[in-house]
Amino acid sequence: MINTSVLVLNRNFQPIHVTTVKRAFSLLYMGIARAMDRQLSTFDFESWSALAAEVDDDVIHTATRAIRVPRVIVLQFYERIPRTKVRFSRLNIYARDNNTCQYCGRHLPRAQLNLDHVVPRSQGGRTTWENVVCCCLHCNLRKGAFTPDQAGMHLLRHPARPRWTPVFRTPEGRVAYREWLPFLGLADAAYWNVELLDD
Ligand SMILES: [Zn+2]
Q1: 173 alpha carbon to ligand 1 midpoint, in Å?
Q2: Which end of the chain is less packed: N or C, by CB atoms within 10 Å?
């Protein structure tokens, strides 16, 4: 199966998330979604399968034919309205801070990053955009249960709720295909990851 991503729209053509080609084909095959071409026409599985692939299309091969990989699918039954605010989530904090430790400034893979409460929870710090930053494991350990002042550390910048809307990216961090562009303007903060709670 081709390793690319497919943008999923709800019935109102609002983007709700990005999925795998395999999942997209399964939704298409089950009739839960329709595939959309570059002219923004939608197709069910049979009519989509009958389309001829163009030269630069990714295709999957079945026993009898080559089927174009859709870049965009439209759900037929599921109507979720995108949120209007940037979701407060781990992924979006990493995105806001550009995968960069907000103390030492190192840009690192996500596996080597953590979230840090600027004012520690043990000192009454809350889990909010204004008090949580991206932090490398080393700085996280060094800072411990102290405030930056107490630990003699400095924030690169004051954390705040971002004004941008999240960009739809593939799991590899790649931004999409030209077929996605007509829809991404609508993407004010629809995002597929889990909201963090202030506990
Ligand atoms: Zn650091």
Answers
A1: 22
A2: C
